[in-house]
Amino acid sequence: MLDLCLAVAHHLLIFALFGVLVAELILLHAGVDQRAVERIGAIDAFYGALAGLIIVVGFSRAVFAAKGWDHYAHNFFFWAKIATFALIGLLSIPPTLAYIRWRRAGAPPNGEQIGAMRRYLWIEIALFALLPIFAAAMARGYGEIG
Predict the structure, then answer these.
(1) Given this model, what pLDDT does residue 55 score?
(2) Is residue 52 left, alpha or beta, with left meaning phi > 0 and alpha meaning psi from -120 to 50?
(3) How far apart are CA 120 and CA 49, in angstroms?
(4) pTM greater than 0.85
(5) What percent of the chain has pLDDT over 90?
(6) How far is CA 70 from the centre of its chain?
(7) Who contacts 41 (Cβ-Cβ below 8 Å, separation ≥6)?
(8) Distance of alpha carbon 29 from the chain centroid
(9) Contact 65/2 with Cβ under 8 angstroms?
(10) Which end of the chain, N or C, is less packed with Cβ atoms under 10 Å?
(11) pLDDT tens for each residue of 52-111
């Protein structure tokens, strides 16, 4: 039962994270006002919380669930998934810092600033597509190391 609960929680958190990322992209457009900047910042904080929960639940799943750590530790696709998730996390830092700067400045960003942050979000979304690919390969036994 623990295996099922962790798997369900992990999948729901991943879907929620993707939804939050898409929401940020939709809300961040030319002509945003200060109120929208504050809303995007709040959504981004939720994004960070979800990412943290995904890490906790994901590693709990790898350690305590049915397959156990040895199964995951020796799988290329597991590590590719972890590296991709970490890269997405690193790419989320510049937008987060920009939202904080924009809120503190009390003035909405210009079009160039918005365009730069949208590029980060698009790259995150593109990389996000790799996560279910790696998970599916891993679940089917591909990527065993040694």
Answers:
(1) 96
(2) alpha
(3) 19
(4) yes
(5) 90
(6) 25
(7) 99, 100, 102, 103
(8) 20
(9) yes
(10) C
(11) 999 999 999 999 988 889 889 999 999 999 999 999 999 999 999 999 999 999 888 999
Torsion sign, CA atoms 103, 108, 113, 118: positive
- The confidence score (pLDDT) of residue 66 equals 84
Phi, psi for 75 (deg, rounded to 5): -130, 120
Show the tokens assigned to 75.
């799988």
d(CA 96, CA 54): 18
Phi/psi of residue 145, each to 5°? -105, 130
Is 49's pLDDT higher than 90?
A: yes
Instruction: Say which DSSP state 107 is in.
Output: S
CA-CA-CA-CA torsion for 118, 124, 126, 128, nearest 10 degrees? -150
Identity of the residue numbered 141 = G
Residue 30 burial class via C-beta count within 10 angstroms: exposed 0-12, middle 13-18, buried 19 and up: exposed
Q: For residues 21 and 124, what is the distance between their CA atoms, to the nearest angstrom?
A: 8
Quote the pLDDT of residue 65: 86
* Cα–Cα nearest to 133, from 84, 91, 92: 84
